[in-house]
Amino acid sequence: MTPTEKAAYAERANSLGLSLGQFFREAGAAYAQRNAEAETRSLAEAEALEAALRQLERSTSRTEQTLDAALAEVRAALDAQP
């Protein structure tokens, strides 16, 4: 950290009524909390995406079965024509 950066941080800490050390401790704690919340959100989003993909697989499977049955009926109808 440059002397100019340190002075800016010290001024900011002082304006908040904190020592420079306390300022950095609180900043570190806030950063860790935000990262933990972001990780929790990412995990929840991944789980939701996996659930949606499983549902899509089931839906696709049912659609394929329905189309196969319809195609079999069409073939049978065409084969039954004189």
Q: With helices defined by DSSP (H or I, 4 residues minimum), what is the helix count?
A: 2
In percent terms, what proportion of residues is strand?
under 5%
The proportion of residues forming helix, as a percent range, comes to: over 70%
Q: What class do helices, strands and sheet pairing give?
A: mainly alpha
- Report how far the terminal alpha carbons are from each other: 90 Å
Number of strands: 0
Question: Any low-confidence stretches, pLDDT <50, length ≥5?
Answer: none
Count of structural domains = 1
On the 0 to 100 scale, the average pLDDT is 94
Helix and strand succession? HH
Our Rg estimate from Cα atoms comes to 31 Å
Global morphology: rod-shaped
Major β-sheet annotation: none
Question: What would a concise description of this structure say?
Answer:
The protein has helices at residues 3-15, 20-80. The model has no long low-confidence stretch (mean pLDDT 94). 90% of the residues lie in helices and 0% in strands.
Note down, in words, how this protein is organized.
With 82 residues, the chain is mainly α. The protein has one domain (7-80). The chain is built from 2 helices and no strands. The longest helix has 61 residues, at 20-80. It is rod-shaped, with a radius of gyration of 31 Å. It starts with a helix and ends with a helix.
Descriptors:
90% helix, 2 helices, mainly alpha, rod-shaped, 82 residues, single chain
What's the topology here?
Elements: H1 3-15, H2 20-80
